[in-house]
Write the structure tokens for this entry.
Amino acid sequence: MAAALGEEEVDNDDYYSLLNVRREATQEELKSAYRRLCMLYHPDKHRDPELKSKAEQLFNLVHQAYEVLNDPQSRAIYDVYGKKGLEMEGWEVVERKKTPAEIREEFERLQQEREEKRLQQRTNPKGIISVGIDATDLFDRYDEDYEDVPGNGIPQIEINKMHISQSIEAPLTATDTAILSGSLSTQNGNGGGTINFALRRVTSAKGWGEFEFGAGDLHGPLLGMKFFRNLTPQCFATAQCAMQFSSRGIRPGLTTVVARHLDKNTMGYIQWRWGIQSAMNTSIVRDTKSSHFTMALQLGIPQSFMMVSYQRKFQDDNQTKLKGSVKVGFFGTVLEYGAERKISRHSILGATVSVGVPQGVSLKIKLNRASQTYFFPVHLTDQLLPSAVFYATIGPLVVYFAINRLIIKPYLRAQKEKELEKQREDLAGDIATKRQEAEAAVLLMQESVKRIIEAEESRMGLIIVNAWYGKFVTDNSKKTRKSKSD
């Protein structure tokens, strides 16, 4: 991100050049230059209307430059990112005693937050599209059970399930927000949909409450409430209760979660769920700049399990992550490993291989594009076949590197060239503007010199017409140097 930012941070408003001082100038040097230019460009010192207008424009620019360079934090931000860095929202909450390196990190964080807010806009849209693919015929057809099955020899790959969900938020007041969400699901020819409406109110700085109503042809009407509360600065709790109305009657449900900060990077969770699938779950999550670790234990009906997962975060421009997890329970054992990587400014691509008993082997491909998620679980085989594991691991890597080299990199290169061309056009316009400002400054200085000459002539003062600086060399000095060299 820093590399991409460096190409966009070119700023032609050089405040140091405007004040005619060096970049290492002290506060006293800045103040002296500011006072001198204010006397030169002050609009009241010019009688000609055109020169007065130009003087006013230059006077405002000088004042703006001094306001920035006179403040230590603003000057540090300007030195790193130029004028665009000063336009970033959020600097008012940043500690003022920051080094240039810390200011660079803060700028990147604030820019990322601004881009995310701009993408999500006020409605904060979120969506998930999941397409399940059955590709078991690629591997299971070579088993003995498939030897005598007639066919044309071409493996059959089918889409056996699909799920689409979308939600938007609409702020009503400073404390009230309306949330509308819906989903459609289908599996093996059967499916349905639901729609939900929720109203969330922030009750205080420590908590909020939410009321939810839903309807659909899968489970029937739904009424629910959810509450969040900060118990202490290190601990919070949530409670969610719901009543599902169906042809079998009313099915109530209750879920509570208590979480606490164990240290700066570690959270502990305890969850109790009562209803159709009652369970108790406890987990510890440790998230640092370079890793993410989770350990969870659940006791419940119908599933009890223990899970451990670890994710390694690499500090590169592509935000590469490697992850792995092991899950053991009454349903069997599942081993998962995978990776994800940033492929563009707002897109992250990931792939995970799942190997389990009795689930078999699956490949899960996920693409996050801003606030939209596209998920493609591909079921390869119901058995533990080494060939399926091998192709599920190597196949995505080969496809990724091929697409990255043939499509993604050429596309990003073309976008970069367009941005550079736009910067050249903007730079040409800025140069023309700066040239006009320089010509105006010369005219103003000529006008100022003219006034000084007239004042000196009126009182018979001294006027220096020409001046030479340096050491005058005579013929005698030349001869002396020549004799010494001989």
Remarks:
- Confidence is low (pLDDT under 50) at residues 1-12, 90-97.
- The chain is about 35% helix and 40% strand.
